[in-house]
Amino acid sequence: MDLFKKCSSTVNEVNRALALEIYPFFTPIESVQDHRVTIDGREFIMIGSNGYLGLAADPRIKEAAMNAVKKYGSTCSGSRFLNGTLDIHVKLEHDLANFFEKDGAIVFSTGFQTNLGIIPSIAAKDDIIIIDRQDHASIIDGCRLSFAELKKFRHNDVKDLERILKTLPDDKGKLIVVDGVFSMEGDLAPLPEIVDMKKKYSARLLVDDAHGIGVLGEKGRGACEHFHIMDDVDMIMGTFSKSFASLGGFVIADKNVITHIKHTARALIFSASMTPSSVASAQTALNIIQSEPERRKRLMEITKKVLTGFHDIGLDTGNSVTPVIPVIIGEEEKCFGFWKMLRENGVFANPVISPATPPGRALIRTSYMATHTDEDIETVLDVFSRCAKQFGLVKT
């Protein structure tokens, strides 16, 4: 059998979607990722970005990136382990640890690599990892690389988590891994109850808070701060590609855990380090997150307005309480059709299908920025209302 035979089915699906003009992926954007973007020379309201604080267009971020390139060049030409550590990497890690009031941090080149690195570094073949069934793909792949035994509990079901924990032997290392904010539907993990389970069954807890840091909590430290459990979580993972308007990832933990990760995480040791421009832009974003809490306040005002507006229209937004707000459609082709209608009306959103969401639960993933204007939001709600009625999603 030809190894490449499987490629044909993918190509056929892509060509079919292109022919029907419902292919939504790899869209070239011709402008900065802001509340409005340009595609094919046309302006769209962007509600499909993870730049929750709207910092990608901030002149301070741009200036910091350019200055870093002038001083350090375009790349470090090596891994952190060998020649790729700059003084700005060390400062960023120091400041991140202080921000979270922990004593250790390490940055990775991407968020995906962060989970690929830290999970196999902490859990090995004689350990057990317990994850939520809707955890991010990077968590799942990190678990596979660890060779640890993997257990999955029903989404946000603490009773099912305890059912699993009860069966595990006391002499096995146990790691619970959950998203703080689930990236497709914007719902929160029940972290206080999960912390109770962690303590009761002597496990460790890793929270991937990529979509919560910068957004939730009094100081913007994410879902763990939102639930007042910062001291009870063993490791907090985050990314720079969302609220930080950069690229990379990081993990916060006890300094001994960080030292272990630094010397054993293959995704860190064998990857080129974060580029100088990425480090500088993340550092500047961290400073802004700490000094401008009004951005989070504005973002949550927008979130409440959209949730209320969608509910008034009659749309199903699941259990979202965050700036990630899904519109549940159901069938995949229907989801693509609705996405196309939104695009024709000048709104950029993301259609999400299995395996990123459970089968039969295709959705339009919308997400919001602190820089969205009142006019943007009013237009979005008007477009969704008209399209939902025309498409038969809600009763007219």
Please characterize this protein's 3D structure.
The chain has 396 residues and is an alpha/beta fold. It folds into two domains: 20-49 and 293-391, Aspartate Aminotransferase, domain 1 (Alpha-Beta Complex), CATH 3.90.1150; 59-291, Type I PLP-dependent aspartate aminotransferase-like (Major domain) (Aspartate Aminotransferase, domain 2). The protein has 14 helices and 13 strands. The strands form three sheets. Strands 3-9-8-7-6-4-5 form a seven-stranded mixed beta sheet, with helices on both faces. A three-stranded mixed beta sheet has the order 1-2-11. A three-stranded antiparallel beta sheet has the order 10-13-12, covered by helices on one side. Strand 4, helix 5 and strand 5 form a beta-alpha-beta unit. The longest helix is centred in the C-terminal third of the chain and has 20 residues, at 294-313.
CATH arch. level architecture of the largest domain? 3-Layer(aba) Sandwich
The main β sheet shows up as: 7 strands, mixed
In CATH, what is the class of the largest domain? Alpha Beta
Mean pLDDT comes to 96
Span between termini: 53 Å
Class based on secondary structure composition and strand pairing:
alpha/beta
- What is the CATH H-level superfamily of the largest domain? Type I PLP-dependent aspartate aminotransferase-like (Major domain)
Task: Give the strand line-up of the largest sheet.
Answer: 3-9-8-7-6-4-5
Low-confidence stretches: none
**Amount of beta strand:** 15-25%
Number of strands: 13
Number of domains: 2
Report the order of strands and helices.
Answer: HEEHHEHEHEHEHEHEEHHHHEHEEEH
Quote the CATH topology of the largest domain.
Answer: Aspartate Aminotransferase, domain 2
Q: Radius of gyration, Cα only, in angstroms?
A: 21 Å
Helix content: 40-55%
Inertia-based shape: globular
